[in-house]
Design brief:
This protein is of the alpha+beta class and about 140 residues long. About 25% of the residues lie in helices and about 35% in strands. It is built from three helices and six strands. Strands 1, 2, 3, 4, 5 and 6 form a six-stranded antiparallel β-sheet that branches. The protein starts with 8 loop residues before the first strand and ends with a strand. InterPro entries: Fatty_acid_synthase, HotDog_dom_sf, MaoC-like_dom. This is MaoC/PaaZ C-terminal domain-containing protein.
């Protein structure tokens, strides 16, 4: 990415989220909210089904940025808002999230600002996702 210019689209990534991923993330994060694993509870509170943890979705996008940077330590900042849930079906396929990034600015020192996208079912699930990456 060190040669990417403002306006360049970076290599996209497709990730899959399964119910098993949600259970593993719940255990690691301590977020045991049943909307992330129990269909009945998710539907009772008005959700369309079990949803991925917003922070898990954000972590997938942050991991993508770190890989683009070539070094996790090169990521200076990453921020976003959660705009829509990722509904994860109870099957072997899971939910597919498309990640993308565009270079929006290159500073004199080579630091790049990225606009990051994450879409599920053709709709954005992260809003105003911005990363700052310094050169390695």
């Amino acid at each position: 990415m060190t040669d990417a210019s403002a306006g360049d689209q970076l290599e996209p990534r497709t990730v899959t989220i399964t119910r098993a991923d949600l259970v593993a993330y719940a255990g690691a994060s301590g977020d045991q909210n049943p909307i992330h694993w129990n269909e009945r509870v998710a539907l009772e509170v008005g959700l369309p089904g079990v949803i991925a943890h917003g922070m898990y979705t954000m972590s997938l996008a942050a991991d993508y940025v770190a890989d683009l940077a070539g070094d996790p330590a090169a990521v200076v900042s990453f921020s976003t808002r959660f705009t829509r849930p990722v509904v994860v079906p109870d099957d072997d396929t899971g939910a597919t999230v498309e990640l993308g990034a565009k270079v929006t600015d290159v500073a004199d020192d080579g630091t790049r600002t990225l606009s990051v996208s994450a879409t599920f079912d053709g709709k954005g699930v992260l809003g105003k996702a911005v990363a700052t990456v310094r050169p390695r």
